Amino acid sequence: MNKLTQVETVDATPVAVIKPAKQTSLFSHARYVIGENPVTGIAFGMFVIIAACAVFGPLIAPYDPLASNTTSALQAPSAKHWFGTDQLGRDILSRLIAGARISLATAAAATLVSGAFGVLVGLVAGYVGGVVESIAMRIVDAFLALPFILLALALVATLGTGFGNIIVVMVIANWARYARLVRSEVLSVKQRDFVTLARIAGVRPLTIMLRHVLPNVLNSVVVLAILDVGRAIILESSLSFLGVGIQPPDVSWGLMLADGRTLMVFAWWLTTLPGLLIVFAVLSFNSLGRWLHARFDPRGQL
C-alpha cells in the first residue's frame, strides 16, 4: 500500500485516509547522505575545519605566519611545531591557516562574480533568443574552447599579478560555464505555463526574467557554484605555484608548494601538508555540491 495511505476503521468499515508525506529536514538529509558515504562525512568535516581556519585564522594560529626564525629552520613536526617549520623557520601550521583565508577568499570572490556575470548572460540569451542568443553563445563557446590554464596564464601576463588581478583572471576563465548552464535551463523554463500566462497578462520581460524564470534556475547555479569553488582553489594554487598568482609576503597553499618543492626530499612536510589540504578542500566542496544536488533534485541522483 502507498506510504501516504493509512487504513482507519469507521463503523467497522476499513477506510483509506490520505496523510501528507513527512518532510525530511535538511539535517536529516545530511545525516542520510553522510551515512551512505563515509567519505562525504570526512569531506564535510574538512570543510568545516577549513572554513573555520579561514574565518578565525588570526585567533587560532599558534605563531605569526610571516615571522621567520633561522635557528628553527626546517624542523620536523614536533610538539612545539605540530607541522614543522620551513627554510626560514616559519611555522607551517600557522602558514597553512593563513593560506586557507587567502585561497578560500580568492576562490569564493571569483566564483561569486563569475557566477553573477554568467547568470546574467545566460538569462538574457536564453529568454530573448534570436540574434542575441546566437552571438552570446558563440562567445561562450569560444571561451569554453580555450584551455583553462593557458587562458589564465595569458591573462595574468597581460594584467599582472596580485589578489585583484587573480580574481579578474578567474572570473574571465569561469563565467562561460554559468552562462551555458543558465541558458539551457531558461530554454526549458520559459516554455512553462506560468511564463506564458505572465506574457499574456502583459508582464514586462525583465519582470518575467527576474521573478518567474531566475528563481527556477537558481538551484542548478548554486550547485555549480559550490563545485566551482574547488575548481577555483585548484586554479589559484596552480597560478601561485607557477609564480604568477598570489605573491609574497601573502601566503597561499600553492605558494607554499612552490617554496618547498626544491627541499621536498629532505623536508617532506613542506609540500605534503599543503598538497593534502588542497586535495581535501576540493573534495569537501565537491561532496557539498553533490549533497546539494541530491537535495534539490527530486530523483536524488547526479
Textual characterization of the structure:
A hairpin with a 2-residue loop joins strand 1 (5-10) and strand 2. This protein has one domain: MetI-like fold (Orthogonal Bundle), CATH 1.10.3720. It is 67% helix and 4% strand. Helix 2 (38-60) crosses helix 3, helix 4 packs across helix 6 (163-189) and helix 5 (148-159) packs across helix 6. It has helices at 26-36, 38-60, 92-128, 130-145, 148-159, 163-189, 193-200, 205-213, 218-241, 253-260, 269-296; strands at residues 5-10, 13-18. It has eleven helices and two strands, in the order E-E-H-H-H-H-H-H-H-H-H-H-H. The protein is mainly α and 302 residues long. The chain has a two-stranded antiparallel sheet with strand order 1-2. Residues 1-10 and 15-23 have low confidence and may be disordered. It is elongated, with a radius of gyration of 25 Å.
Topology:
Blueprint: E1 5-10, E2 13-18, H1 26-36, H2 38-60, H3 92-128, H4 130-145, H5 148-159, H6 163-189, H7 193-200, H8 205-213, H9 218-241, H10 253-260, H11 269-296
Antiparallel strand pairs: 1-2
* CATH fold description: MetI-like fold
Secondary-structure class: mainly alpha
Euclidean distance between termini CA atoms: 29 Å
Radius of gyration, taken over Cα atoms and rounded to an integer in Å:
25 Å
H/E topology pattern:
EEHHHHHHHHHHH
Into which percentage range does the β-strand content fall?
A: under 5%
CATH architectural grouping: Orthogonal Bundle
Count of DSSP H/I helices? 11
Question: What is the total number of structural domains?
Answer: 1
Mean pLDDT: 81
CATH class: Mainly Alpha
Biggest sheet overview = 2 strands, antiparallel
CATH H-level name... which superfamily? MetI-like
Q: Report the count of strand segments.
A: 2
Identify low-pLDDT runs.
1-10, 15-23
The coarse overall form would be: elongated
Helical proportion, percent range: 55-70%
Q: Widest sheet: strand order? A: 1-2
